[in-house]
């Protein structure tokens, strides 16, 4: 499946300035692997030490939160637009 | 400067700039203070000499140097609530009444006041926000007061009073066909591309600090002591965290004695991601699609949810949620028992408090403060059909007496017989 990923400004320095990137991936895990291969510096920003998606990173597919679509089990459709959006929290523990 | 932004997770310093995320680890930024530099100017005596507004706590707010406030936000009444207490089975119950906060009648006036001080400092001409209503009103009002252009993003179907209460200040109101969470996500994208001061996106670390003044005021108004319990409505989850930060700062700087405070959250059942997580013992929220008339709390993916859960559970508190009929009943209960007319979020808070007393999670003899964060005149549609308008009566004494007999079963009185002159 060919999908397009929108990269937020904060991460574009890690994608050679690219704001939109196309990938071939069947699901979220494959998408991250594809991004890792294209942009090795991006990995630690998207996933934590245990390989899980970072707590403050929200992933949207065609404007819908991927958690409503099945999260990691969601099967990408050809032409899906993926958005990576940081969650704007302001708290402290 | 006595404060700066630092990453909560990796600790990297970001100085002072319009930014809410650490580029290194993607985690939220937080305002950190040099408490030793602030210590001498943040004393009970100095605060008592300050204005009757949130600006009496300026030393622990992230304001530009020599900032001159333009709105008298905060320092709202802390009311004893004996009649409500009786109905809830409580004894020492207080209401922190931000239904009368200046200038737009919700606690959001506090956070916006701080955010706009920095918006000016950072050179923004346009300020903006995503909002469930109260924030829209506050940004619009304070933008007018400070000469900013305002562009406000809201879910299209907000309460009419909150829409009008934004437009009246001359703000550009952009209605989005979608939920607040969708509006918020869109604003993150827009903030990425436009040089606007989004109070709850790129100005968020500063903005969120304004909520601390609720905590400072509760402590000062209780005679410089902390309550045993705070019950707080939760939308994004920021207020409850910042009340805790305020209490900790007061302890750290010696203004109050240290004591354990329990934090209790209140949500509407139709949008209860934080409450659901607390009850299930989870540390993260599962996002929800809101279905509640408590529009100001209808955030299904609360940004501070994770931290709010931690604050609540680590304090030994709890979180409850109430149905739409319950919250409406509780708006009426609060109004009838204490003369405070709150919006739907306040009904949620009172309803949650009632459950917490019923469950024995809050003891009647403990000092408990309910945070009432918004004004009932903005959500009158929630009370539609609750009261009937009676037919008018003629302006005649006899008519009124007939009315008394008819409606209250009080025997009618006749006018005294005339005496001849």
Can you describe what's shown?
The complex is a heterodimer of chains A (about 90) and B (about 425). Chain A is globular. Chain A has about 90 residues and is of the alpha+beta class. In chain A, strand 3 (about 55-60) and strand 4 form a beta hairpin. Chain A has a single domain (about 1-85), classed as Ubiquitin-like (UB roll) (Roll), CATH 3.10.20. The mean pLDDT of chain A is about 85. Chain A has helices at about 10, 30-40, 45; strands spanning about 1-5, 20-25, 55-60, 65, 80-85. Chain A contains three helices and five strands. Chain B is an alpha/beta fold. Chain B folds into two domains: about 80-105 and about 210-385, 3-Layer(aba) Sandwich (Rossmann fold), CATH 3.40.50; about 110-210, 3-Layer(aba) Sandwich (Rossmann fold). Chain B is built from 15 helices and 13 strands. Chain B has helices at about 35-40, 45-50, 80-90, 110-120, 135-145, 160-165, 180-195, 205-210, 210-220, 240-250, 275-280, 305-315, 325-340, 345-360, 395-410; strands at about 5, 15, 30-35, 80, 95, 125-130, 150-155, 170-175, 195-200, 230-235, 260-270, 320, 370. Chain B has a six-stranded mixed β-sheet with strand order 4-5-13-10-11-12, with helices on both faces. A four-stranded parallel β-sheet of chain B has the order 8-7-6-9. In chain B, helix 5 (about 135-145) packs parallel to helix 6 (about 160-165). The model of chain B has no long low-confidence stretch (mean pLDDT about 95). The interface between A and B is large, with 29 and 42 residues.
């Amino acid at each position: 499946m060919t999908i397009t990923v929108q990269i937020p400004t904060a991460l574009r320095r890690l994608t050679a300035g690219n704001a939109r990137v196309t990938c071939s991936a069947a699901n979220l895990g494959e998408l991250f692997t594809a991004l890792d291969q294209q942009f090795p510096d991006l990995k630690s920003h998207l996933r934590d030490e245990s390989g899980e998606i970072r707590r403050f990173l929200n992933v949207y597919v065609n404007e819908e939160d991927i958690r409503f679509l099945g999260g990691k089990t969601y099967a990408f459709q050809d032409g899906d637009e993926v958005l990576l959006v940081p969650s704007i929290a302001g708290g402290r523990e | 400067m006595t404060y700066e932004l630092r990453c909560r997770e990796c600790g990297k310093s970001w100085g002072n700039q319009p930014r809410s995320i650490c580029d290194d680890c993607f985690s939220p930024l937080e305002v950190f203070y040099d408490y030793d530099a602030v210590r001498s100017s943040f004393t009970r005596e100095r605060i008592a000499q300050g204005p009757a507004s949130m600006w009496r706590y300026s030393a622990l707010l992230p304001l530009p140097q020599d900032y001159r406030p333009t709105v008298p936000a905060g320092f709202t009444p802390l009311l004893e609530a004996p009649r409500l207490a009786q109905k809830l089975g409580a004894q020492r119950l207080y209401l922190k009444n931000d239904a009368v906060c200046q200038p737009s009648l919700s606690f959001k006036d506090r956070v916006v006041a701080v955010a706009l001080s920095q918006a000016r400092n950072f050179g923004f001409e346009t300020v903006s926000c995503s909002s469930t209503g109260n924030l829209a009103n506050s940004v619009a009002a304070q933008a007018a007061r400070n000469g900013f252009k305002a562009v406000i993003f809201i879910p299209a179907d907000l309460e009419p009073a909150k829409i009008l209460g934004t437009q009246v200040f001359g703000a550009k109101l952009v209605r989005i066909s979608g939920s607040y969470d969708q509006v918020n996500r869109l604003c993150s994208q827009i903030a990425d591309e436009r040089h606007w001061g989004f109070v709850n996106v790129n100005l968020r670390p500063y903005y969120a600090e304004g909520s601390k003044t609720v905590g400072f005021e509760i402590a000062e108004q209780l005679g410089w002591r902390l309550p045993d319990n705070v019950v707080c409505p939760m939308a994004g989850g920021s207020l409850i965290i910042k009340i805790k930060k305020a209490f900790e700062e007061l302890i750290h700087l010696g203004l109050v004695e240290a004591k354990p405070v329990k934090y209790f959250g209140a949500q509407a059942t139709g949008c209860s991601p934080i409450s659901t997580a607390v009850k299930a013992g989870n540390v993260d929220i599962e996002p929800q699609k809101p279905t509640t008339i408590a529009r100001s709390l209808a955030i299904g993916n609360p940004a501070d949810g994770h931290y709010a859960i931690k604050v609540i559970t680590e304090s030994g508190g709890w979180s409850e949620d109430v149905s739409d009929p319950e919250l409406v009943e509780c708006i009426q209960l609060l109004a009838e028992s204490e003369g405070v007319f709150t919006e739907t979020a306040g009904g949620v808070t009172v309803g949650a408090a009632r459950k917490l007393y019923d469950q024995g999670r809050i003891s009647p003899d403990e000092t408990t403060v309910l945070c009432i964060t918004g004004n009932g005149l903005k959500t009158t549609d929630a009370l539609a059909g609750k009261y009937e308008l009676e037919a008018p009566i003629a302006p005649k004494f006899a008519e009124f007496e007939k009315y008394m007999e008819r409606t209250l079963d009080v025997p009618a009185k006749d006018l005294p017989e005339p005496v001849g002159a």
